[in-house]
Write a structure and sequence with these properties.
With 650 residues, the chain is of the alpha+beta class. The strands form five sheets. Strands 5-4-3-6-2-1-7-8 form an eight-stranded mixed sheet, with helices on one face. It starts with 8 loop residues before the first helix and ends in a 6-residue tail after the last helix.
């Protein structure tokens, strides 16, 4: 029978390190929190190789008393609490007395520290939990802790570390979070000898946010300032002009501590219910102040999980705080004239590519639609009211030159002449009539399938009409069947398969655009430039534009009518969620986002556009569902219809 015995200190420390020190970011978090507790107002974080070879934290805090330096690296030694009762009134970030001992057990550590009362500082070196050097040294007041060769004595743990880029990204997240938690502290972050960012010492959270994130986020911020009987909630959340594809920019603090709490995220998003697109999330920076006795922070050694005594009440207060901020001003999504003109001019000044599968009528209507969009730019109030554009100048339309349009080989000279004639006629007509939306024509029963090689999984159909500008109604005369087709889901399927096939054959059609600069946060910039090859393979050319900015020169033609930033951030956020080993999954998800340029429910389509859409649909491998699994087409037989009208009895 096995004998029960006491483990030696080395084994105990390594076991504890397995709970507290999961990766380099855990070390950074623990050491920076110690610096904050030491009342530092300047903290420098330096890493190399994702923290695997070097982590150095330097602060100007109180320092460690020279006679207490050794004790600081023993397990369960802490200056933060003296008894279990103190857990009910915690105002420090650290309190367990495990971090330094755990770090020293699995790495080589050098600590240099000095208090204001000491003449000299003290330097101590620890390897694998054993002190090998202790001596006096000259140094400023404060503490510098250097950690090298992480997990050198625990090779099994070292194998599980991710790439340098991934580990650097995790460290960046934690440093950003800690900087936001204490805006009165100046943070400097150095990655591989390069200064990634520096935050100011300020009394305003928004100043810290502006030093860490891109201009688009900063310009979208709404102030949160909410007081209730159980909590005070302050910070910022974004309006409807800014959202991302994941929750990484939702950062929450409880009594100054960075926390992870899934339910808080859900309640934040509940305040945005129906206001943002599906699977898009706001950014927010929330500081929750609550009586320490009402929250338990001693849930996990990492101290990022908390439990509230009355969780439902706190969560509802969070929702109310966000809701109040959102509705403190108009929540209407703003569209600036300059932005739209720039976006539209990019598509027109560049080559306009017409899909060969669309008929001549489709080409005409697509071109006129571009002109229609330009004519509606008088003001944001008139963007969605075509009848209100009388007497608007048509300067933007008149300045378009046909020599700037790249007609493909499939488009003949006659096509060009047709467009010229159309524009001349349009100029002579009142603007209101020229650019009125499509009137739904009287549809005749026309068979749209005319392909010689019929490999479609759909039967021959005749278009009857369009219901609610969303559902295409067709019938199959040969078999007494009626079909309803969702135009948006159909276009999603077409775009998805088209782009997927282009990618798999490495033959993505590219369209040059007017170069656009996108300013990014440090983390987003690093992700973009380190994945430049993936963007290139997807048909998006990005260049380093300096100071956390990139330049995009071209995009796939399938996204030519999309918002460029939406497409870029969709890919960027997808790349952040998985490793390169799961790249196929990422690409699958990215390509599914082809729906961003698909025709939407409510878009008015001409009969020629409908016929072209259905012709493309029948050539897809799966015409039955969209990439997200929703049905594209629903069939009803004559028998089922007559049964509903009780013409026949079952």
């Amino acid at each position: 029978m096995a004998v029960i015995h006491l483990l030696d200190n080395e084994t105990i420390n390594k076991i504890a390190a397995g709970e507290v020190i999961e990766s380099p970011k855990s070390i950074v978090k623990e050491l920076v929190e110690n610096s904050i507790d030491a009342a530092a107002d300047e903290i420098t974080v330096e890493i190399k190789n994702g923290g695997k070879s070097l982590i150095r934290i330097t602060d100007n805090g109180k320092g460690i008393e020279r006679e207490q330096v050794e004790s600081a690296f023993r397990r369960h030694c802490t200056s933060k609490i003296t008894s279990s009762e103190d857990l009910n009134s915690l105002f420090t970030l650290g309190f367990r007395g495990e971090a330094l001992a755990s770090i020293a057990a699995v790495s080589r550590v050098e600590v240099i520290t000095k208090t204001n009362d000491d003449t000299y500082g003290i330097k101590m070196i620890i390897e694998g939990g054993i002190i090998i050097l202790k001596e006096d040294v000259g140094c400023p007041v404060g503490t510098t802790i250097t950690v090298t060769d992480l997990f050198y004595n625990v090779p099994a743990r070292k194998k599980f570390l991710k790439s340098d880029i991934s580990e650097s990204g995790y460290i960046n997240e934690i440093v950003v979070s800690l900087a936001l938690s204490k805006e009165n502290i100046s943070f400097k972050y150095i990655n591989n000898n390069m200064v990634a960012f520096r935050t100011p010492k300020t009394n305003s959270l928004i100043n810290t946010i502006s030093s860490l994130y891109e201009k688009d986020l900063y310009n979208s911020l709404l102030k949160v300032d909410y007081v209730s009987s159980i909590t005070n909630i302050t910070g910022y959340t974004t309006n409807l002009n800014y959202y991302r594809g994941n929750r990484k920019q939702q950062i929450v603090f409880v009594n100054g501590r960075v926390i992870k709490h899934k339910r808080i995220s859900y309640f934040i998003e509940a305040a945005y219910n129906t206001l943002l697109p599906k699977n898009k999330y706001p950014a927010c920076f929330l500081k929750i102040e609550i009586d320490p006795a009402l929250v338990d922070v001693n849930v996990h050694p990492a101290k990022t999980e908390v439990r509230f005594q009355n969780e439902e009440a706190v969560l509802n207060e969070v929702k109310k705080a966000i809701y109040s901020a959102l509705h403190s001003t108009s929540i209407m999504k703003e569209v600036k004239k300059e932005t739209i003109l720039h976006e539209k001019s990019k598509n027109i000044d560049s080559s306009i590519i017409f899909e060969s599968s669309f008929s001549e009528d489709k080409q005409k209507s697509a071109y006129l639609k571009n002109l229609n969009d330009l004519s509606n730019l008088g003001s944001s109030d008139n963007l969605y009211e075509p009848d209100s554009i009388d007497n608007k100048p048509i300067q933007e339309i008149e300045n378009i030159k046909f020599t700037e349009i790249d007609f493909s080989e499939n488009n003949t000279v006659e096509n060009k002449n047709i467009f010229e004639e159309i524009i001349e006629k349009e100029k002579d007509m009142p603007l209101k009539e020229s650019f009125a939306p499509y009137e739904k024509p009287e549809f005749k029963q026309e068979t749209f399938i005319e392909s010689e090689k019929d490999e479609s999984k759909l039967p021959e159909l005749s278009v009857i009409g369009i219901l609610m500008d969303t559902y295409i109604i067709c019938e199959n005369l040969k078999k007494d069947q009626m079909f309803m087709i969702d135009q948006h889901a159909a276009h999603e399927r077409i775009n998805y398969e088209k782009f997927l096939k282009q990618y798999n054959s490495m033959d993505i059609l590219i369209q040059e655009i007017v170069p656009e600069v996108i300013n990014l946060s440090y983390d987003d910039y690093q992700t973009a430039v380190s994945n430049a090859e993936i963007f290139e393979n997807l048909g998006i050319s990005i260049e380093n534009f300096g100071n956390n900015a990139i330049l995009i020169n071209n995009i796939p033609t399938i996204f030519k009518d999309s918002n460029l930033k939406d497409v870029f951030y969709s890919i960027l956020d997808s790349l952040k969620e998985v490793t390169k080993s799961n790249l196929d999954f990422v690409l699958e998800k990215i390509i599914k986002n082809a729906c961003v340029k698909s025709v939407k429910s409510g878009d008015k389509l001409h009969i020629s556009e409908v016929k072209a859409l259905l012709n493309d649909l029948r050539m897809t491998d799966n015409p039955y569902t969209c990439p997200h699994g929703r049905p594209v087409i629903i069939k009803m037989t004559k028998y089922e219809i007559e049964k509903m009208f009780e013409r026949i009895q079952s």
